[in-house]
Amino acid sequence: MAQADDMHTASGRFGLVAMLLAPIILVNSFVFLLPILNLFRISFNEALPGGGIGPGGTLENWYKLAEDSYYLEIMLRSVGMSLLVTLLALLCSYPIALYVHRAKGAWRTFLFVLVVSPLLTSAVVRTYGWIAMLADQGLINNALGLLGFSPLRLLYNQTGIVIGLTEILMPYMILALLAGFGRLDPRCEEAALTLGATPVQTFWRIIVPLTAPGIALGCLLCFVLCVSSFITPRILGGGRVFLLATEIYDQAIVTLNWPGAATLSILVLVIFGAALVVYTRAVNRLN
């Protein structure tokens, strides 16, 4: 009798959980899963002149993606640049996040507002602001000229894109780090210093390991956002730096090759999946 009651209770809980999860499952199915499946289907269609999509199935798009070194170069450039931007965002954001975490009272609230405030401005506006900073006659090169240095080529190349994306993604990195700093116990640092550890040793052996989950989360978030970023690379690259996101746009809007654009989009999703696998394994090892 007790076993039957337990089964009835478990069944009731399962029904409640299913009912609560049903809305989000339906929403994700219609706005995420079905479009992805449709992209996957289109990637096996033939591209017709004028932007048409042929009804027949073909592997031509995937063969072209695998055999053409141009797409391999674009993928490697996109992944490499995303890794570089993620690393720079981490190095620039970690001290800021640690300082904000250790701040107290109203000062901490003020610093947190400063961290979040860039997110209230459109990425397009911030990108055009970087054009004024990085141009040949911009603020940075004018300052270098006053100091007697030669001007640098900072715009319409990979350097400008890296600088712009690093600044744009820093708030996301800082927020992710702050979320992971909850495990940071000041008493562990005090104990290490009391036992004779130097501040540098305390940082590398106490602070960094305790905040590693936040570091992993911030790196995953910045990498995914960087790989899929379009506006900033398009504007700061001036159409001269070809990445996966810009190539997808060109295939879909300029050349009207929708099957080709769908194939590249699935490739981006594969990269996202690989990044998620790496993140999951890293977190499991850290825990």
Number of strand elements: 2
The ordered string of helix (H) and strand (E) elements is HEEHHHHHHHHHHHH
Fraction of residues in helices? over 70%
First and last CA, distance = 41 Å
Domain count: the total is: 1
* Helix and strand composition category: mainly alpha
Assembly annotation: single chain
Overall pLDDT level: 89
Strand content: under 5%
Strand order of the largest sheet: 1-2
CATH superfamily: MetI-like
Could you tell me the CATH topology label: MetI-like fold
Q: With helices defined by DSSP (H or I, 4 residues minimum), what is the helix count?
A: 13
- Spatial extent as radius of gyration: 24 Å
Low-confidence stretches: none
Helix and strand arrangement:
Elements: H1 2-42, E1 45-47, E2 53-57, H2 60-67, H3 69-102, H4 105-116, H5 123-134, H6 139-146, H7 158-180, H8 186-194, H9 199-210, H10 212-227, H11 231-237, H12 244-254, H13 258-286
Antiparallel strand pairs: 1-2
Helix pairs in contact: 1-13, 3-7, 3-10, 5-11, 7-10, 7-11, 8-9, 10-13, 12-13
